[in-house]
């Protein structure tokens, strides 16, 4: 971020100097819309009030910087956009010539910050996006430094925890896109703790804390604990359970009744088939359809008949062989 305090000081000092073309009041003061070309090369075009820039205006610096926005008594105040010579830009709220409130800053290297400002510094809640890596910091800021609860989001994982002086400290967790979380704590070595008091004036000299893993768990999906109220038709849970049990009993009774009807139908069909010689196949068909047990008995009987036939055939063959042997003996 460029420092234009000198240029803005010149802007303040040259407020009443230079050529002016515009409206004036009865006292000859610059009042209303006007255009001024200052001796230092800067130019302003916009609203004046009692010779002070007041209202909407555009101030162009000879360095290439430019401010387009609101003024109050020669100071940037309200909403405005400042274009810096290095290509960076701030668009947002101003108070007393300083970035204050909500604003969005685009830096020369492509990084962006969108969030709260206080006295020209990132302060409060904000989101900083690193263009080169695509990483994103979402959380607290104090006087331009990452501090407080925050989330550092990378391409395939993220860290959620507390930051101090721009680095993570204390307990936190890494959340991976593969579906697990790594819980742990950032701690400083004993050597770093011993030097901490000596280097309090320059925290950047302290070594980065080490990450210590405590456990790895599955990804935890947070769901709101909302109890569903039963509708009038559903009734209380006990009544619903009783209704389900009654429905199950009724289904069992219907099944039993169906089985009884089927058995009665089998009996009627079998009886009618026994008394009708002109339909010998009816008993067989009804057995196949309604009485698989009887069909098995028929198959067993047929098997036994076949075995008997085979036995009789074997016995007949044996008798014939005996007769032949007797004849030969004679």
UniProtKB/TrEMBL annotation:
Q: Where is this region: Disordered?
A: 1-43, 187-208, 226-330
Described purpose of this protein according to its UniProt entry: Functions as part of axonemal radial spoke complexes that play an important part in the motility of sperm and cilia.
Which lineage ranks, top first, belong to the organism behind this chain?
Eukaryota, Metazoa, Chordata, Craniata, Vertebrata
Compartment(s) of residence? Cytoplasm, Cytoskeleton, Flagellum axoneme
Q: Which InterPro entries does the record associate with it? A: MORN
Biased amino acid composition, Acidic residues: 1-14, 297-313, 320-330
Identify the SUPFAM superfamilies for this entry.
Histone H3 K4-specific methyltransferase SET7/9 N-terminal domain
Which residues lie in Basic and acidic residues bias regions? 21-36, 187-197, 272-281
Keywords of this entry: Cell projection, Cilium, Cytoplasm, Cytoskeleton, Flagellum, Meiosis, Repeat
| Chief localisation class | cytoplasm
Low complexity: compositionally biased ranges: 238-249
Species the sequence originates in: Meleagris gallopavo (Wild turkey)
A GO BP term here is: axoneme assembly
Task: Report the domain of life of the source organism.
Answer: Eukaryota
Name used for this protein in its record: Radial spoke head 1 homolog
Q: Tell me any Pfam family this protein matches.
A: MORN
What GO terms fall under cellular component here? condensed nuclear chromosome; meiotic spindle; radial spoke head 1; radial spoke head 3; sperm flagellum
Where, by residue number, does the polypeptide cross the bilayer?
none
- Does Chloroplast show up as a keyword for this record? no
């Amino acid at each position: 971020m460029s420092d234009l305090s000198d240029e803005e000081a010149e802007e303040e000092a040259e407020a009443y100097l230079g050529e002016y073309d515009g409206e004036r009041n009865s006292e000859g003061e610059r009042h209303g819309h006007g255009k001024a070309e200052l001796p230092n090369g800067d130019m302003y075009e916009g609203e004046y009030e009692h010779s002070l820039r007041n209202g909407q205006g555009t101030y162009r610096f000879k360095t290439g910087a430019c401010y387009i926005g609101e003024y109050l008594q020669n100071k940037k105040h309200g909403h405005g956009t400042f274009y810096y010579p290095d290509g960076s830009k701030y668009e947002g709220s101003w108070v007393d010539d300083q970035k204050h409130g909500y604003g969005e800053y685009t830096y020369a290297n492509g990084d962006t910050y969108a969030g709260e400002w206080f006295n020209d510094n990132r302060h409060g809640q904000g989101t900083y996006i690193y263009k080169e890596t695509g990483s994103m910091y979402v959380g607290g800021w104090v006087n331009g430094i990452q501090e407080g609860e925050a989330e550092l989001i990378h391409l395939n994982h993220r860290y959620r925890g507390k930051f101090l002086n721009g680095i993570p400290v204390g307990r936190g967790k890494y959340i991976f896109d593969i579906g697990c979380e790594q819980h742990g704590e950032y701690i400083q070595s004993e050597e770093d703790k011993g030097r901490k008091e000596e280097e309090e004036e320059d925290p950047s000299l302290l070594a980065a804390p080490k990450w210590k893993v405590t456990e790895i768990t599955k990804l935890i999906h947070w769901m709101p604990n909302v109890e569903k109220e039963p509708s009038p038709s559903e009734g209380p849970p006990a009544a619903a359970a009783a209704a389900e049990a009654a429905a199950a009993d009724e289904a069992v009774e219907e099944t039993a009744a169906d089985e009884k009807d089927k058995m009665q139908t089998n009996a009627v069909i079998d009886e009618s088939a026994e008394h009708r010689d002109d339909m010998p196949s009816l008993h067989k068909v009804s057995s196949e359809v309604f009485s698989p047990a009887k069909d098995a008995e028929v198959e067993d009987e047929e098997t036994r008949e076949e075995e008997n036939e085979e036995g009789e055939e074997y016995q007949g063959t044996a008798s014939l062989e005996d007769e032949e042997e007797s004849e030969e003996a004679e």
